[in-house]
What we know:
The two termini are 37 Å apart. The protein is 60% helix and 0% strand. α1 crosses α2 (30-60). The mean pLDDT is 88. By secondary structure, the chain is mainly α. The longest helix has 31 residues, at 30-60. It has helices at 12-23, 30-60, 73-76, 78-89.
Amino acid sequence: MGVHKQSVSFTDTAFAFARELVESGEYPNVSAAVSGEMARAKASRDKARVLFEAEVQRRLTLPLDRWEPVGALDEFTADARKHLARIAAKGRPDTDLRK
């Protein structure tokens, strides 16, 4: 595993949490706490993604007569379209992505 030296900033709350983890003996230092908690978060997201994918695959095997309507297609995809528009706008210098 490679190590990359990097300077980062934390909110007071995040730093306090990292310090608590060090003080409780879970990690030897703040750097290890941040790295460890990021690895835990990634593992959690990966697990959630795998479970979601399995559920989608399970539902796709259902016969069509057991499918339930999800609403109008334009409403169903609205959030995804907004997300894709934000991604497409990332390279544009005068675009506010916080909207």
